[in-house]
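Morning run. Coffee first, then this:
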Amino acid sequence: MKGEILKKHIEELHNSNVIDKNDLNSFLEKYKVLGDIGINSNSLFYILNLNTMKYEYVNNACYSFTGYNTSDFYDLGMAILPKIMLEKDFELLSNDLFPKMNEFSKNLDVTQQGKIVFEIYYKVKHKSTGKIVQLVEFSSYTKFDVNNVPILSTGLCYESSQELNGVKGIVRLNENEKQTTLFEEKLSYKNVKLTKTENIISQLLTSGFSRKEIALKQSTSLHTVNTHIKNMYKKLNVNKVSELIKIIGER
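And here it is:
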């Protein structure tokens, strides 16, 4: 499942053209320094090659956010995303939200495409500590090939004060010293589809029935009920019944 989602995300971004090596080196020389100065040094800063889908540069702050070193980012490229992002956030972002944002940007004229900023909210889980952190990522297409197709992308990731029950994406245009919001959408876990049986069990839980009572009412085993609840936990990215009931109540 993760592999299929990653493949879709890569296809959304991939540029089949190869960037000129001299152009790449010139760009890296100019932009790499940005990852080590001021506030950027405490934020995850990256440069992504949209042909190879590999990171040309990631600053050392990547470890504090994700538990993965710069060498891990270089070795894995975009394949590191499903390892660091919360699974449900990665699924919502790659399958739905980012394709919408990217399609919207493609419909802008070429000059505007070079002036847009993607603002994306999602959660990551630290490899060592297990801590879940809400991030906001600001990314831009910063170099285009001869066909005006993005070939390099840069991004900055900060810890966000917004606590979202899902993902959010904004496309902003920076033009004439003015910032304009062109696109904004939020997708929450409550949009995730449950099976018919999962819906029945979730509604019974919301009505105050215990797991044993639900098993009797549905003429099934307690083990089966627990399995359905575990599946809902995974789908909705929760860890206990109270969290599940809260989300179901919002549906």
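The chain has a mean pLDDT of 90. Good start to the day.
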